[in-house]
Amino acid sequence: MGKFYAIAGLLVLALVLAPVGFLALRKKADYGDRTVLYQTYSAKVKSIDPATCGDTTSASMQGQVYESLYTYHYLKRPVEIIPQLAAEMPEISEDSRIYTFRLKPNIHYAPNPCFGIKPDGSFRTRTVRADDFALGLKRVADFHLQTPLAWSFLSERIVGLDEYRARCEAYREGDFSRYDMEVEGLEAVDDLTLRIHLKAPFPQLIYVLAMQTYAPVPRELIDYHLATEPGPGDERRPIPISRRTAQITQVEQIVGTGPYQLTHWQQGALMVFERNPEYRHGFYPTEGEPGDAEAGLLDDAGKPLPFVDVLHYECILEDMPAWLRFLSRQTDVSGIPRDVFDTVITPDRDLLDKWAKQGLRLSKFTDPTVFWLAFNMDDPVMWASKSLRHAMCLAFNVEDLIEVLYNGRGRRAVNVLPSSFPAHPIAGPGPYYRYDMEEARRQLDQARSELAAVGRLDANDQFPLLTVDLGGRDETSRRMGEFIRQQFEPLGLRVRIELNDWPTLQQKVHNKQCQLYAMGWHADYPDAENFLQLYYGPNIEKGTNNSNYRNPEFDALYDQVTVMPDEHDRNEVYARMVHMLNEDCPVLLLVEPMYYVLTYDWVKGYKRHPFAYGMTKHLRIDTQLRREMGGR
Amino acid sequence: MTTTAPNPAILAAPVQQGRSLWGDAFRRLRRDPAAVACFLVIGAYVALAVGAVYWYPDFLETQNYSERNLPPSADHWFGTDVFGRDVLAKTLLGARVSMTVGFMANAIAVPLGLALGVLGGYFGKWIDDLVVWLYTTLASIPGIILLIALKYAFQGIILFEGTFIELNLSGIHGLYIALGVLSWIGTCRIIRAETLKLKSLDYVTAARASGQGRVRILVRHIVPNLLHLAIINFTLGFVGAISAEVILSFLGLGVEVGTPSWGTMINAARLDLVVGRWWEAVAACAAMFVIVLALNIFGDRLRDALDPKLRI
Amino acid sequence: MGAYVIRRLVQAVFTIFGVMLVTFLLFRVVAGDIAGAHLGPKATEQQKREWLKKYGYDRPLLINRQPDTRWYDTQFAHYVSTTATFKTRSLINNEKLSDTILERAPYSLAITVPALALGWALAMVVSTLVAYYRASLIDHVGVFLAVLGMCVPYLAFIMGGQWLMFKVAPSMAYGLANPFNIFVPVVISVVAGLGGSVRFYRTVILDETTRDYVRTAQAKGVPLPSVMFKHILKNCMLPILTNLIMAIPFLIMGSLLLELFFGIPGLGDLLLSSITNRDEPIVSGLTFLTALIYVLGTLATDITYVIFDPRVELT
Lengths: 632, 312, 315
What we know:
The complex is a heterotrimer.
Chain A: H1 2-24, E1 36-41, H2 56-62, E2 70-72, E3 81-83, E4 91-92, E5 98-102, H3 130-141, H4 148-154, H5 161-168, E6 186-190, E7 193-197, H6 205-208, H7 219-226, E8 228-230, E9 236-238, E10 260-266, E11 270-275, E12 310-315, H8 319-327, E13 333-335, H9 341-344, H10 353-357, E14 360-366, E15 369-375, H11 380-384, H12 386-395, H13 398-405, E16 410-412, H14 423-427, H15 437-453, E17 466-471, H16 475-488, E18 495-500, H17 502-510, E19 516-522, H18 529-532, H19 539-542, H20 552-561, H21 567-584, E20 587-589, E21 591-600, E22 603-604, E23 620-621, H22 623-628
Parallel strand pairs in A: 1-12, 17-18, 17-19
Antiparallel strand pairs in A: 2-3, 4-5, 5-7, 6-7, 8-9, 10-11, 11-12, 13-21, 14-21, 15-19, 15-20, 16-21, 22-23
Helix pairs in contact in A: 12-15, 20-21
Chain B: H1 8-12, H2 21-30, H3 33-55, H4 87-123, H5 125-140, H6 143-153, E1 158-159, E2 167-168, H7 172-182, H8 184-199, H9 202-209, H10 214-222, H11 227-250, H12 262-272, H13 279-306
Antiparallel strand pairs in B: 1-2
Chain C: H1 2-31, H2 34-39, H3 45-54, H4 75-84, H5 97-132, H6 137-151, H7 154-168, H8 183-209, H9 212-219, H10 224-247, H11 256-262, H12 267-276, H13 280-308
Helix pairs in contact in C: 1-13, 5-6, 5-8, 5-10, 6-8, 7-8, 7-11, 8-10, 11-12, 12-13
């Protein structure tokens, strides 16, 4: 029996210590003398293929490796488009339908085996050509790739591209000969000249082409990485067509022109980017907006980018552990979780002294994002009574919302456009987007008679139960729900909150099953059309207008304004459209959030950009200072 | 022949009371201080579940934004929550959810388990095979996954809308049904085993021999002898239901917004703990701990009391 | 004996089929608007239809009654064939499930295996001690603590443990930066389960202690410790180890909550996130795998029991 105990004891010991051995054997990151930026990210990256990118986390990561024709100036505000892979701003024809882009010569891709392998084992590369952009755009149009976001900006814009998409359906996914088909509207005039033919004027095209989702794709990538696979020895063997996928899913398959290359990706855990040796076309800006020089943002003017050699991103889904990492100087940049906010920021919204002494700096940014509660205008109650909508807008105390649920980080949205857009001040605040209980009650009385007229009051002549759908099941959503209920209670409106996870909410919204639902929109580009399209009648079919707002006058103005080339004229029309929305109240506007970002003193050159991704290349780390202050 | 008149003395003598299993058990429990104490605690929670709503009728509307997140003090014994509401009130109101879930879930699960177990055990053959197949299949899938999946499936579904028995499946009603439909397995197994044993007992065979119908035997002889097992399982299943509610609320799949429950309190406190706001989590955990303890001890004592082998 | 084995095998096959059916139906219903979930809010109706067609979700569920198609060309048949041949692929990144499992299973096992081993060892020590000093203060205190431990909500253990770690050694409170971090969830798991194990083992040991041979041995003058270690524990091992072995099939899934709280990239975490992300093939595949392991495990236990324990009757 003694033997049994001995064996059992040893076995237990072995089993208990085994995981330590296993975990210790994992590859440890050792970067030697190179400069490393450490950061955490809080959602999983879903896509490393530029065409299929659809969420902000993937876009942030892709921004490090892919570039498009244009980008935004890092420092200037209001934002300004500057050429990136293009040599200059495009040449636009008289009728605004033909854009000619001249590319910068000598832009090289990051070295990759698809271009060939040199005798010493390193990878070759080549320069970017115009037909690479054409291929990138064709992939966005490809029927077999899931590109809802990227395609939504191009659909029905470029001559021949929609027909191309339809023709792709006849091909099998693995049959890449479809990329050889010509598209009338995408013309590679020569190696360095790309011409795009539009069906109608599209003034926002330049902004669209500043998204890295339209990065150039070399044909070699398709032929090497997607059509062949590693075989026995060092050979590559072809993959049978039925087994091929058209999407880029492996780290080795990424071929970009950006400042970094993705060298390590452990899904849901870690992403490591290292400097791209072929990146030579990026330089720190030499001018900015007033205040930048004082803030030290022009100290590195003119120097070649990037400064940091390695970007080390760790995926931490929970707020708290990410915050603690930051506090213990394991990471360099962080946001501030809601629950610790009061311990970091004073009531005046400044950094508490003790944190400033520890070497932290606070930066505040307003993003062009707006959150609201949308009314489903097809719902019989919501549609029938404009006064009810007015009453609800007037009764909702958004200032309290910002205070209680946002730690005061934000401002009340007073019309559907973000306050940084030029058309916002021209249009002015909506008359019902303020807190006024008396007026709310008056509107409610009117609403009662409006609803009674269409028979929408319930059995006891009371207002019917209203349902609000939220898109999240976490504590934040729950609190929001409780707050919303509380806001309508003084009016005597009964509200039921439904928590849904995000896919279910989208499904319900799409099937028009919601009465009210929470929604937000982050601007894709600095043009009001991006927000106003959410209220355009024909977009109900397409799925982007989910409040089902229909207003023929609004639609007429929209049709007019989307083809106006001059921005100043557009803003006037935008303001008129916003006036209509202010009066009709198809949404209950809530917050324009502000972002508070903390950086340590050793991080130089940080300025959050409202639209662009891939700006990390401007950051510089003072490694000596970091070591001195107790960092990594 | 003389007739003898009945002797009044004999008639007046007290007849010895028959001792039923239930009477015995009740007597034993009554004399056991631990069991009595636990029963009182359970009673208190039931009273809370029913009565707290009247005590704090407008709880949810007591949001007070200037008193948010205060630690325990003389005014608020357990502090306030993120909206300035009293945490003690929230805890007491939360008992309603837990007790209701515990009761309703088991009210579905135990009869279901009893019915299936008896049918399978008694009628045997293909019915038994079916029942065994059913519970083995369900038992092989991790319970929490089934619960999560069912709750996801129930999202947004409302049955019998507008009527008295309206069931909002995405909220607490869905919770009862999901828990009920998945927790019958334990009861079923035990009942089935016991039925198999009872089936072969002499008195059952005798009843069959005397020509009594199978259903009659079932109802008159077998089921009454299984009821004690059902009751024990009900009590112990209560605990499982309460814990499940807490975990599901924690994952965001529990009660609807606006209903105070211990699970949502613990969920809310997840991040608070790290910043030192312990009162909400501790209140909910303590409340849960006490009722679970009481139910466990009471269930144990009940099992001992109902065990015919432990006759004093 | 052979007949018994065959009978159990047949039952196991039916159960496995049953599990396939249940998981398939349940998760298809759960998936809801699966195209919308994967394509995002900006997808049009037509894009969704194309997507559904690409992944085969437009076929009938169980039986195909449409003209010009085989009756078995259904989603269920597709599910069965891909699962059985280990060809399941994720909808999100097209990674093979088998690869994902190989990558993540070690992390789940890294928590559950040490927890099982350590938990068993600790529970054995405590329950033997308590049973030995039966009816004394040690026994009462031990049982009392065990019952208390059983009644504390599991979440309380996890949250309390994490809070403690934040105070004491914050870098160990989350993630696996340091290999020794794994012991935090392991210890929490052991402590949370200790109460229940101790009570169970104590009951088994006490049952054994009341047997005749123990009294005989003591009457013959054999000291109690000797009886305890030489005979009692040996006879207790069978039910205790059986109980342990029944838990083995669930080891591979890890503990959902522990993985969630401590950021361990194991299979439990994968399952939870797959459900949220509507990655239907992964969810069905993983659940089926767990169920399969469980069924096979029970089958193996039953058959081993029959071989080794002569007292068991064959039903």
